[in-house]
Amino acid sequence: MGSRSFDAADHSVVYFNPVAPLTVNGASSGAFRRPQLAQFGNVGNDSAFGPGEVNVDLALNKLFTIRERYSLQLRAEAYNALNHPNYGNPNVCVDCSLSSNPGKITDVALPMRQLQFSARIQF
């Protein structure tokens, strides 16, 4: 498992390849098998996880003294400063129909780079 490159046609990322729908009990496709009637599968809790997250925020500020009682503070902030795409979680249904986008990531978890500037006069 691991995310691949961004598909510009449908704005998605393929995270894993889905298998053919498992329609009957005991059917298998790829690495997956549908359990028999009245049996449980062997997949554990939280065995599927999404891509990691990289987030770097930066802030710079400078305080200028104008007179004894007056000062000016300039501040610049950058959220997700490296502009790294942080993808959301994929649709984890491995044997669903192709219309439900199985194995694809269709959203982002964090917004792209955002900049904020401010000035403050203290008196």
- Tally of helical segments: 0
Main β-sheet, spatial strand arrangement:
1-2-7
Mean of all residue-level pLDDT scores: 84
Hey, roughly how much beta strand do the residues contain? 25-35%
Low-pLDDT sequence parts: none
Give the tally of structural domains. 1
Short characterization:
By secondary structure, this protein is an all-beta fold.
Question: How would you describe this protein?
Answer:
- The chain has 123 residues and is mainly beta.
- The chain has one domain.
- Helices cover 0% and strands 30% of the residues.
- The strands form three sheets. It has a three-stranded antiparallel sheet with strand order 1-2-7, with no helix packed on it.
- Strand 3 and strand 4 form a beta hairpin.
- The protein is elongated and about 80 Å long.
- The model has no long low-confidence stretch (mean pLDDT 84).
